[in-house]
Amino acid sequence: LVGCSVQPVGGSGVFEELSLFACSPTDLSELLKEGTKESHDRAENTQFVKDFLKGRIKKELFKRATVALYFTYSALEEEMDRNKDNPVFAPLYFPVELHRREALVKDLKYFYGEGWKEKIQCSEATQHYVDRIHHVGQHEPELLVAHAYTRYMGDLSGGQVLKKVAQRALKLPSTEEGIQFYVFDNVSNAQQFKQLYRARMNALDLDKNTKERIVEEANRAFRFNMQVFDELDEIGRSLTEEAQDGGLPAHDGKGDLRKCPYYADKLGRSWATAELPQACGTRLAALTVLSVF
Ligand code: HEM
Questions:
Q1: Ligand 1 atom nearest to CA at 194
Q2: EC annotation (predicted)?
Q3: 145: domain CATH number?
Q4: Distance from residue 243's CA to the centre of ligand 1 (Å)
Q5: Does the residue 104 lie in any domain?
Q6: The domain containing residue 236 runs over which residues?
Q7: What is the H or E stretch that residue 121 is in?
Q8: pLDDT value at 293 more than 90
Q9: What band does 158 get if pLDDT is binned at 50, 70 and 90?
Q10: Rounded distance from Cα 109 to ligand 1 centre (Å)
Q11: From the alpha carbon of 3, which atom of ligand 1 is closest?
């Protein structure tokens, strides 16, 4: 089976579990990987994620994404704390290695200052995701693993790439301020840690039906993430230039952009080739992208 070959790792302690890790198609880790493949492809192909990977993300939008993550991980980690002694989740409780809330608080302090809490709010799509996490944690805790898997395994997989992209695109300091979310100080080897996590998921005592419900819930978690991405994409399109990282000044969104001397001058040659918008406003973002990238 592809993805099942486990390199036995030496040493002692929890990593010894890995040498016992034999993979079978009915293992939860395999069912999740196979059962969420399509969702993963779809998530990778959302506009927001594609733009992010190309470094096309403005600071204001990155800040909003950090806010969404803050509310999501606050809910997730609250529910994981609640279920830390529940056998359906306890083996996957790794607060020191994985929990992101504190890292996100640091990022929000960096972006919004000490009064960060008063300056942020939970978006609609994020609220739906948060509500579902709380429901699961309180009423169907056997499904909590699906939410933890979808986020932390993803973070440990693509995080390093995204960290570099964000650092470069937003010109963030090399001291990693603003991107603490992507830094797992207590995971020295992400690949090994993911194997440990898979082994722990497979050791949960679950019947076939519960495993199927967990896979279904993981696909649901992917959908919540995609809804948050789509919402961010929408916000990105409607941000004024001023909000977009001190770019071009905001415009009132009315009238013909070609009659605005500032833009005609500012956009210069790209103006000639750009598809001219009917009006300013939301389509300014598209024009700025044309002129900046
Ligand atoms: C930026 C676009 C993305 C890229 C390039 C990417 C890339 C990858 C790669 C290469 C792996 C395999 C790592 C391995 O087997 O060790 C992986 C795994 C994973 N990713 Fe992503 N990913 C992206 C977005 C996402 C998103 C948006 C989510 C969910 C919110 C996600 C969740 C996961 C999960 C849960 C796994 C673990 C799969 C498993 O081994 O069971 N990824 N990703």
A1: 16
A2: 1.14.14.18
A3: 1.20.910.10
A4: 31
A5: yes
A6: 31-292
A7: none
A8: no
A9: confident
A10: 28
A11: 15
Residue 211 domain flag: yes
Site to probe by mutation for ligand 1, drawn from 29, 32, 40 as the one with most ligand atoms within 8 Å of Cβ, is 40
Q: Ligand 1 center to residue 33 CA distance, Å?
A: 10
Residue 10 lies in a domain: no
CA angle 155, 158, 162 (to 5 degrees): 100
Distance in Å, CA 188 to ligand 1 centroid: 19
Average pLDDT, the chain: 81
pTM: 0.80
* Number of other residues whose CB lies within 10 A of the CB of residue 275: 8
CB 58 within 8 A of CB 239: yes
Q: Residue 15: what pLDDT? A: 54
Residues 111 and 177 sit within 8 Å (Cβ to Cβ)? no
* Cβ atoms of 15 and 187 closer than 8 Å: no
Does the residue 195 lie in any domain? yes
How far does residue 154's CA lie from ligand 1's centre (Å)? 4
Q: Which of 18-27, 98-107, 251-260 has the highest mean pLDDT?
A: 98-107
The residue whose CA has the least distance to atom 27 of ligand 1 is: 43
